[in-house]
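Tokens as discussed.
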């Protein structure tokens, strides 16, 4: 075997280091895309805390599996869909994530809110926008 080729195989290519920033950027992008909805939900909760409060009814609950890049289950996403009138019928969602080993807890948590009345905050400038805050559950 050629000694230079053996050296590259054993030590790796000198170009491997150039790929590192792209691999890191891809990992960061995947993490950001996964947690983006929770960041937006948190940000709206901070901003919407001073909005007018009204009552809404949680009518639809769902629990879905979340998959990683390798196709493995990485957790469960619970979504509460609520409806309110202002003056027309409007809707909104609240999401919460559960770890992989807590499927029963995720289903029980979601089911506990089915049909309940919850306080939501409605944007005074745009009544189609609302937020259900974690503190109000």
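Sequence:
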């Amino acid at each position: 075997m050629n000694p230079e080729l053996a050296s590259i195989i054993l030590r790796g290519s000198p170009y491997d280091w150039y790929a590192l920033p792209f691999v890191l950027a891809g990992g960061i992008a995947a993490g950001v895309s996964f947690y983006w909805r929770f960041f937006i939900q948190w940000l709206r909760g901070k901003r919407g805390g001073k909005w007018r409060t009204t009552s809404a009814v949680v009518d639809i609950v769902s629990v879905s599996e979340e998959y990683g890049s390798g196709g493995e289950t990485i957790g469960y996403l619970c979504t509460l869909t609520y409806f309110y009138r202002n003056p027309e019928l409007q809707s909104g969602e609240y999401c919460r994530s559960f770890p992989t080993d807590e499927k029963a807890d995720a289903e029980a948590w979601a089911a506990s809110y089915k049909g309940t009345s919850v306080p939501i905050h409605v944007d005074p400038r745009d009544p189609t926008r609302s937020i259900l805050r974690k503190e109000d559950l």
